[in-house]
Each structure stands twice: as structure tokens, then as C-alpha cells.
Design brief:
This protein is mainly alpha-helical and 299 residues long. It has one domain. The protein has 11 helices and no strands. Helix 2 runs antiparallel to helix 3 and helix 5 packs antiparallel against helix 9. The N terminus is likely disordered. The longest helix has 29 residues.
Length: 299
């Protein structure tokens, strides 16, 4: 269930946001806009070039900080409720709701923090959307040529996606990178059932579908690694575990779909520069939706 890079679950004292995560994610700025001159004179200048006689100070070196550890018991409630949900064979929807809402609000410190923890997944999600948009406008052959993957042109869509894996989500040693890559592989397996079969004829709705599948798989894997790994690593009833997994996946996909639809954005219309901010926005909104839906289910 979730990522194949399973581990024993996050410890309560683990920092909410590991110090290396933003660097690994390419320093996405959409979640934390940086202050400074906006070019319109709002900071007391006219936004133009500095005078050649005016010394320009060196940028200060980034300050290294040690992230504060989280509360030691912050995963307890989410894990307890997820365990109840699992033991019910997927029937205890209230426990699933409590697990999800507690996970977002208490275990990881809110939707914004939860989104920041999806570092590699956000980066890979943006790369996936940019490739799909390029393929829809310029044709798959040209999109692949731009990545030096000409040899994949004309092949079935599953083979094309498999060949894209090293570009979209390079293999790495961290759990975060493993989640992004495994979710991409699971997305490939879903393409046919989702009706996405021809990469040369991608429509806006299909691009949204692929993106939603990918985000769903990454969030599912993140939650399972944090609060579900110890519970489901060695199932006694495979069919029961499959039911639990489908219930969880459907729940997450509902939150992701709600987030994408609420944004009102046509993904196909986004420029490459806009995609990163959109992906960050969707991850945060999806976690917000999961918390809200979970709270409603828990009543």
C-alpha cells in the first residue's frame, strides 16, 4: 500500500519540515512568497536598474537553521484512528475521517505545512504537467525531442511515460523522492482505466485526470508512510487490505478533485512559469479539503 519505500513511520520528534526539503524541491516560492522590490517603486525606488556608481551589496549567505522538532505525540491520534479504520476493513468511515483530519491539523501542522512536505512530488507534478501541455500543443514527438527522448515517439503511452520517469522523477535515496517516483509508476498503471490512451491526442480533461491521479498517489503514499506503514505492511487478509486501500484512495482522490475543480483553472492554459505555483496551490488546497471532508465524516 502506498510507496514501496516503506519505513517505520515518521517519529513524533521528527521536524515538521526537514531542513533539506525545500532545496530538494527546487526552492518553490509559491508557498512562501519572498519579500523585496516588486519593480513598481513600492519599496522606495522606481524598479529600474541601479546606478553604476551605487555599490550593490553582496547577497547575505543563507542562514542555516535547525528545524524545531514536532510534538512527540503528534502522530498518535491519526495512527490510532487509521488503525481502527484498517481493522474495520474500510467500513469505519468515521475513523478514516478522524485519521485524515488529525493528520493534517495535528500531525503535520496544517495544510500549508503538509504541502511543503511534498517537496519532490510538487516538483515532479510540475514537470509532468509541463510535459503534457507541451505534448498537447506541440505534439508528443516535439515534446520528447526537447528532452532528448526522440526514440520514444510513436510508442504506446505507457512506454512513453515509463521512459519519462527518470526525467519527471529521478531516482533518489530519500523517502520523499521514493514517494514521487512510485506515485508516477502507479499513475502509469492507471492510464488505460482512466481513458488516457493516446499521447498524440491529449485533451485538457485528460491532462487534468493524469495530474489528479498523480497527486492522489503521492498524498496516499505520504499518509501511509507517516501513519499507516506499521499497520498494513504484513496484511493477514489481502482482499481486506485492498478494500482499505481503495477506500483511502477514493477519499484522497475526492479531496484532490475538489481542489482542482475549485481552482477554476484550465491546466492546459498554464504557461510553464505558472505551473509550479498552480501545483503548490493544489497540494495545499487538497490537504485543506481532506481535513474538511474528514471532519465532516467524523461527526
Amino acid at each position: 500500500m502506498g510507496t514501496s519505500n516503506a519505513f517505520g513511520g515518521a517519529g513524533g520528534g521528527t521536524p515538521l519540515i526537514p531542513s533539506w526539503l525545500d532545496d530538494a524541491a527546487g526552492g518553490s516560492g509559491a508557498l512562501a512568497p519572498s519579500p523585496g522590490n516588486n519593480g513598481d517603486g513600492a519599496n522606495g525606488d522606481d524598479g529600474g536598474e541601479p546606478s553604476p556608481n551605487t555599490p550593490v551589496p553582496d547577497a547575505p549567505a543563507p542562514r542555516k537553521t535547525t528545524p524545531a522538532p514536532g510534538a512527540s505525540d503528534r502522530f498518535t491520534s491519526a495512527r490510532t484512528n487509521f488503525s481502527k479504520f484498517s481493522r474495520s476493513g474500510g467500513n469505519d468511515q468515521k475513523s478514516l475521517g478522524r485519521a485524515a483530519s488529525n493528520y493534517v491539523s495535528k500531525s503535520v501542522g496544517g495544510a500549508r505545512q503538509a504541502a511543503r512536505r511534498m517537496g519532490s512530488s510538487r516538483t515532479s507534478g510540475a514537470g509532468l504537467v509541463n510535459f503534457l501541455n507541451s505534448a498537447s500543443f506541440n505534439g508528443a514527438r516535439e515534446a520528447l525531442r526537447s528532452l532528448n527522448l526522440d526514440g520514444l515517439a510513436g510508442r504506446p503511452i505507457e512506454q512513453v511515460f515509463a521512459g519519462l520517469a527518470d526525467f519527471i522523477c529521478p531516482a533518489g535515496g530519500s523517502i520523499d523522492e521514493g514517494i514521487a517516483r512510485d506515485a508516477f509508476i502507479e499513475t502509469i498503471a492507471d492510464l488505460a482505466n482512466a481513458g488516457v490512451t493516446n499521447i498524440d491526442q491529449l485533451e485538457a480533461g485528460q491532462i487534468q485526470t493524469v495530474f489528479e491521479l498523480y497527486v492522489t498517489h503521492t498524498i496516499e503514499a505520504r499518509i501511509c508512510n507517516d501513519i499507516g506503514t506499521k499497520i498494513l505492511t504484513l496484511p493477514s487478509d489481502v482482499q481486506e487490505v485492498q478494500r482499505v486501500q481503495m477506500q483511502l484512495r477514493d477519499f484522497i482522490q475526492r479531496g484532490v478533485s475538489d481542489a482542482v475543480n475549485a481552482s477554476g483553472v484550465n491546466i492546459q492554459s498554464l504557461s510553464p512559469n505558472q505551473v509550479t505555483g498552480f501545483v503548490d496551490q493544489i497540494y495545499e488546497a487538497a490537504f485543506e479539503a481532506l481535513q474538511t471532508i474528514g471532519e465532516g465524516m467524523a461527526k
